[in-house]
């Protein structure tokens, strides 16, 4: 299946995308993770995107799309589909993705929107910690590590993402909100929007997504 995950920063897109990808044995591609990797290098691209990513602003559509296009172009490798997380962020990106898929005689199966209230979200993002080694995601209150500051999976040091400061969090939320309604309508009009409450426990949210995907597929068959 070809899926995109939509939702406010911190709603749990990354966590759910990797669960869906593992279950369906498809790759998970996160544009945010790729940008954070790029920032570790001293390339021209890194210099181009650093300002946007560190300040919580959207990287220009054309730059993001080039990256996504390269990933999708490896589609023979991804014959069973993929899960995109963090892309599209606006209607223009969604249209670019559809045009590309159409060229390859494919289509997007579903857009999954994880919903969450603003207050819960700010607390989640503020308490979010990421392993600097393997990228595992934790939360100080909801999903802490056994040893403070140390990743349970690989023993790496936990760190706070640069764009998880309070000021940048509020900016990212307001950018998301201004771009999101047209994007939501775009997928709703295509009949492929699935909305799931992202406030419950990780496994419950995942079960709901699976259930809704199954219902959605049955309806389409
Ligand atoms: P995320 O981890 O998805 O919250 O993304 C982190 C940052 O990467 C965002 O605040 C943007 O600066 C950039 N980014 C990720 N995906 C996109 C996208 N589809 N369009 C524009 N910028 C993006």
Can you describe what's shown?
With 221 residues, the protein is an alpha/beta fold. It has a domain at 2-116 and 191-208: 3-Layer(aba) Sandwich (Rossmann fold). Helices cover 50% and strands 14% of the residues. It contains 8 helices and 8 strands. The chain has helices at residues 13-24, 31-39, 44-54, 61-73, 91-103, 118-126, 166-190, 202-220; strands at 2-6, 28-30, 82-85, 110-115, 128-131, 137-139, 158-159, 193-197. It has a 5-stranded parallel beta sheet with strand order 2-3-1-4-8. A 3-stranded antiparallel beta sheet has the order 6-5-7. A hairpin with a 5-residue loop joins strand 5 (128-131) and strand 6. The chain is globular, with a radius of gyration of 17 Å. It starts with a strand and ends with a helix. 30% of the residues are buried. The mean pLDDT is 90.
* Class computed from helices, strands and strand pairing: alpha/beta
Write down the overall mean pLDDT.
Answer: 90
Count of DSSP H/I helices:
8
Number of DSSP strands? 8
Features:
about 15% strand, five-stranded parallel sheet, alpha/beta, binds adenosine monophosphate, about 220 residues, Rossmann fold, globular, three-stranded antiparallel sheet
Describe the secondary-structure layout.
Blueprint: E1 2-6, H1 13-24, E2 28-30, H2 31-39, H3 44-54, H4 61-73, E3 82-85, H5 91-103, E4 110-115, H6 118-126, E5 128-131, E6 137-139, E7 158-159, H7 166-190, E8 193-197, H8 202-220
Parallel strand pairs: 1-3, 1-4, 2-3, 4-8
Antiparallel strand pairs: 5-6, 5-7
Helix pairs in contact: 1-8, 2-3, 4-5, 6-7
